[in-house]
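quick one: calcium ion bound model?
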Amino acid sequence: MLTRSRRVSHRARFFGSAFAVIIGASCATFAACAGDEREHAPLPDAGPSSSSGPTSGGGDGGHGGSPTSSSTTQPTGGAGGAGGGTGEGGAGGAADPTCVDLKQNGEETGVDCGGVICPLCGDGQGCADDNDCQSGVCGTDAPTTCQAAACDDGVKNGTETDVDCGGPCAPGVKCGIGKGCTAAADCIADSCEAGHCACPAGMLIVPIAGEGSYCIDQTEVSYKEYAVFYNASVPPLPQFKPSPQCTGNDDYVPEGWPPSSDEQLYPVLGADWCDAYAYCAYVGKRLCGKIGGGSNASTDYADYAKSQWHNACTANGVNPYPYGASYQPSICNGIGYPIPDGGVAGPVQVEEATGAAKVHTCIGGVSTFLYHMSGNVEEWEDSCDDTAPTAQCRLRGGSHLSDAAALACSASASATRMSKSQARGFRCCL
Ligand SMILES: [Ca+2]
Ligand SMILES: [Ca+2]
Ligand SMILES: [Ca+2]
Ligand SMILES: [Ca+2]
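yep, here:
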């Protein structure tokens, strides 16, 4: 693939043999070959301007047995003729190299493999570069040989479903969101759809500028969801209780817990940063942080190339608000949001009884299935200015108490890691 042009030139030099028949046919598709032919036999006037000439019947169409190519010594004209195949080899005398003669000859790098014409070489056969090998990896040994597919060679080979992941590399190395897969087990989220690793239910795929993607929760985590975690008596394992960040987090009890029965489908309030972090880890996700993994630097909170949360809110850095360029008080639940009849100011419901995210007017960001990236509850981000339990951690998107400026995707807000608020929640990424 990468040396296609180089290979064409090799191909040109490799003519004059039994392969000429094949090559003659191929030449019709390569400008370089066509150029060679023209040197010998200038084409008839290609017409006024357009060179898309095959329709003009000028005779250069690949297999036409063109009378204009009479000066060439190659049997290009014979390509179309059935007779060209068997008889023409006699012209030279000595046996020409072929890919089936059980010898390494011609430009082959192994026996009947490699080079320009022959099939790719299997593991252990000689090679000149990666393009000679079935595995796509020509080693650095001497002499160089094709290497067996491996899960750390930077190439999609063997039965991997994407580069160094899936297939035999899973479960050790599962493929990330958007990567190739053939089964759920190939993917980090155990979800394979149409050949690509998908996000779990309730999450949306977020493209990364350049390449790649990740997942983000459609909406804020609800009391009902948090209760599953809370009731599970989560052990204080490092993945749930990072140190030193959460050394002082002795419980996962949000402020105001437990919720009343009619609050179940509303966003969980009053969790500290460590509770939010632990919840996301427990459900196989992570508190939204840095694109590519880990915590995002506190100073990079408004960098869509670095912050998962910010990238999703701004739709890859395009919009200041999830729904567009300018503040609209009637769309998302901020301080100017019109309270529905009989309602009271405060967070709105985020989950349906079915478990699906509740559709809301506050849509947008990277998708129209993304809710409450502005307002409702402000959201913890894995973005703190220190690793200490007393660090300041980012809060994103503002809450139902916030004004226009605080409701923007790039609004700067933070609170101490262990603090709790009735206007604060979170969502997870993956
Ligand atoms: Ca051979
Ligand atoms: Ca590989
Ligand atoms: Ca706690
Ligand atoms: Ca929110």
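The radius of gyration is 32 Å.
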